[in-house]
Amino acid sequence: MKPSSLFFVLFFFAVAAASSSSSSRPQCKAWLAQSIPTDMPLLPRVPGVLSTGEVLRWLAGNATKRLDIIAQYWQLLAQPENPKSGDYGFSAEEMERFGAGEGRAVYKSLEDAADRKVDLRILQHSGVAPDFDQESADLALGRPNVQNVTLLLGDWWGSGIVHAKVWISDGKDMYIGSANNDWKSLTQVKEVGVYLVGCPKIAKQLEIYFNNLWTLSFLNSTDYTKKVWDKQWQAKRKVPCWSHFIHEKDRCRSPLPSTIVIDHVDGYPALSDPSMFHIPFETPGSNLSSTSHYSSYLSFAPPELSFRKFQADEQGWVETIKSVRFGGTVRISTMDWLGQSQYLTQTVYWSSLSSAISEVIFSKRATVNILVAYWAHFIENTDQYLKSLLYSNVLCQSSKYNHCQGKVNIKYYKVPGFEKTGAAKSKNNATGNLYPSYTRVNHGKYAVSDVRAHIGTSNLIWDYFYTTAGVSFGTYHPAIVAQLQEIFDADWNSPYAAPVESLISSE
Ligand SMILES: *[C@@H]1O[C@H](CO)[C@@H](O)[C@H](O)[C@H]1NC(C)=O
Ligand SMILES: *[C@@H]1O[C@H](CO)[C@@H](O)[C@H](O)[C@H]1NC(C)=O
Ligand SMILES: *[C@@H]1O[C@H](CO)[C@@H](O)[C@H](O)[C@H]1NC(C)=O
Ligand SMILES: *[C@@H]1O[C@H](CO)[C@@H](O)[C@H](O)[C@H]1NC(C)=O
Ligand SMILES: *[C@@H]1O[C@H](CO)[C@@H](O)[C@H](O)[C@H]1NC(C)=O
Description:
The protein is an alpha/beta fold and about 500 residues long. It has 14 helices and 25 strands.
């Protein structure tokens, strides 16, 4: 090497080192993050997985310029004194035992970031009782660097909410996962998410989605929506006027930059080449290190908010199921499971995920293990849909000419104490409840095959894919795949999971 080129290399190295405060080689890093409810002594812990509470505190704590948050609602501060709260009537000691301090610490980290003049943008749904968006309003009060915006997706899609749970710090660090901005999501509800650090390329795309939601909140939905006959889902419903559920010649020009444009289609077909990140990342939470480049992706719901070649969230789920190798295993963990819509006026039948599962158990001889939450707010017709899926095992074996050796197995996940949740007092009487309301549930939403991991924010019901805001991160990185499998197996093999009884005796 000539001295001049050596000088250039050294100079370049020095510039690169100076531009990165912590290391000379800026590198994207990924960890899995979990919340594990208190009082689950029989659940083995997976080493190297971070806790959601610490991840959220770090995102706020490390923010120097800006912090963007998508939240359904705010309940970081517990309210045992408020008769309207599901925390009502529990003593201060009980609240500490439940882990309420963790929520307080996350809220404090947000206040501190706001006081450091970090530009905080909060995009939220209208919140929940008892005090709805009071916490974000409190953060915004008297701080011009904090913006709080409520976006009602019902105005745009007829129903639906902002349900994504996303934090983006300084355009490079992120949380994407199932945890709400709720103290209970840190220590009383089981959650799974991913923490990405130093990944500006991924953050930049996530911010486009954030900005799309932000833009909608400032537009008059009356001017930008249409009621149409949706041929794909056989329902009359309201959609944004640029939706592919509207006939091509009747569509408007999208006010969002670079939304997906696909000619000659009704609805949103799967993309043949969805956008992938080919960014190498480290996985410090795992011993399985790898320096190769494995693809990763983001997927978004509803599809009208997807852009460029980014896939819709449903495609992300379906293709994770279908990524399973011949004879391999898919693991799916979810709070809800319904093969239909829940909130639409017309009830829509939705078999996208169950079809994908049946397809791989038939032709690929795959095993599919599904963990569904059973809790105080269990949706009553879940059981019928699960049994319908279990019937695939019967169909698989229904002819001696079938070469079908796959199997679907389903278990209900019961966090102990779920039947004893609710306020501790009603008026002045003790209720006998052992935990606050909306606790003691597996709320994680993810799928992992033997090659690909998909971590989402959406419940597995039609509405979450077509009218509700949701985001997923997926990757083929073997360390994340293996660790997510470990998280699933810890739950699946624990005494808290019990098989769904099949109506049919297939064996
Ligand atoms: C890594 O390996 C060591 C030694 O086997 C073990 O103690 C540790 O728990 C492992 N860490 C992770 C994150 O798996
Ligand atoms: C910043 O994040 C790192 C982990 O990514 C964490 O160790 C550190 O404590 C965080 N700093 C603050 C001030 O929160
Ligand atoms: C935002 O915060 C301000 C200041 O507290 C409050 O007056 C306003 O109602 C909040 N807006 C929303 C949409 O929550
Ligand atoms: C939205 O637009 C409609 C029709 O163009 C109009 O009647 C309505 O007042 C507008 N709403 C707002 C909040 O500007
Ligand atoms: C409290 O319990 C008593 C006895 O069960 C009942 O008579 C009374 O109506 C209850 N009070 C309230 C406010 O629920």
